[in-house]
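[SOLVED] Need 3D model of a two-part complex

Original post:
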Amino acid sequence: MSSYKEKAIGVFDSGMGGLTCVKELQKLLPGEDIIYFGDTARVPYGTRSRERILEYARQDVSFIESHSVKMVIAACGTVSSAVGSDPSFGGDVPFLGVVSPAGRAAANATRNGLIGVIGTAATIRSGAYEHIIHEISPEVSVISDCCPLFVPMVEEGMTDPSDIVVRSVVERYLSKIKSAGVDTLILGCTHYPHLEKAISDFMGDNVTLISSGAAAAAEAKDLLREKGLLRTDGHTGRLDCYTSDSAELFRENVQVFMGGDFCGTVERVSVEQLCSS
Amino acid sequence: MSSYKEKAIGVFDSGMGGLTCVKELQKLLPGEDIIYFGDTARVPYGTRSRERILEYARQDVSFIESHSVKMVIAACGTVSSAVGSDPSFGGDVPFLGVVSPAGRAAANATRNGLIGVIGTAATIRSGAYEHIIHEISPEVSVISDCCPLFVPMVEEGMTDPSDIVVRSVVERYLSKIKSAGVDTLILGCTHYPHLEKAISDFMGDNVTLISSGAAAAAEAKDLLREKGLLRTDGHTGRLDCYTSDSAELFRENVQVFMGGDFCGTVERVSVEQLCSS
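Solution:
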């Protein structure tokens, strides 16, 4: 069994956003190896149809599993919302999205029974967060909205809370949710934690922000512990990244997502390889 | 020869932006059939590497040419910039990008010899507009910048010049170019004409805006006339669209790009079909 424990945790996302989940995993589980796949040649998923998102996600999972992992995390709100609660999506290994962990965390956190959810257009259209929250707490009210400019803003490094563009876009998207009086807000896309300060400034200190990537990382740790799959041999975890666009472009952009902390390998995988996997 | 003249003009873009060029073509050449392909399953191209852009563009051209067209227009600043001035890119039929037509139009329009260029990150990185302008007028100065939020803003319908978000983003991206004192500005991405009013308000009446899609449409007309390929049989042109994501999503979004004017067919083509074409 020890060799099985030594397998990596597989994480994938439509692009770079899933690295917020990787950062949390590294904090919680510094001894685990992580294999990350960012589908940068086909990012973003959040504006595409559900059919296309599922097709891409299946290819991403097949690719990740070709690396012999002990668990797969879809660190992507859009994919997690499209898949819903289908535990078989990961094939033979445990599969975890970000929707259920974040939904559970929010249902636990709310005191007034009003939860806000923000995500990509596809995520909000799916109603997946509402679904999981109502399964846990049918009496909770959920108000949700999509924030299409947040992903490109983060990718451009436009996240400073004092920036007039950042402030006006945050206000535009969150006014309705703030007026509704939510006390908990799910950042339902793994890009959004980079806007956490700006969102928090607008929403106020009384609103608890739930990062979907961090919630998934915490739940992944619990799941691996339950299954006796946590690595305990004192190993220092490594991070191996794969990207479907150029490795150079990935390296250029990784700073935005992991700051100076990135210490891993990057390799390109072709889209043809994905399509045939 | 008459049957050859009756072939359609093929137009493609990474997504929906190329429809601004289609609208101009319909105005200038109402008797021509148009086949449009929008690669909505892989949009945007502007954040990807040159290698990936060329790979996608070759597949797009092959797909368009499988419909037996008399000309191919890359109605996409990113593709046109990556291809450069390679007339053989279209294979057996004339191939036209938007860079050369817009560069020529700007070189003709400037009076003070200062031209601004805005486009996607990949377009600006390529230096393609500078290259063509300097070929025509070596003494002209070109100042360029990328505007990554413009495409998602247009796709969200956020184009109202009085909108604080629109105004602050336009100001952010264009201040340097305005300060440089340009009298001509190339909208080097086919999405940008939807922000024309906001850009014009900021730049002032003395600055001539050149829409790359409109410039390409005008040059396409000249080229077809020169080659004796203009249709003259009194036919009313039709528009047949293909999209790599769902046809329904294309229909939903087409209003943003063509207003109430859209009257055409929409059919989905799979990415696998593109990869193998």
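Edit: The radius of gyration of chain A is 18 Å.
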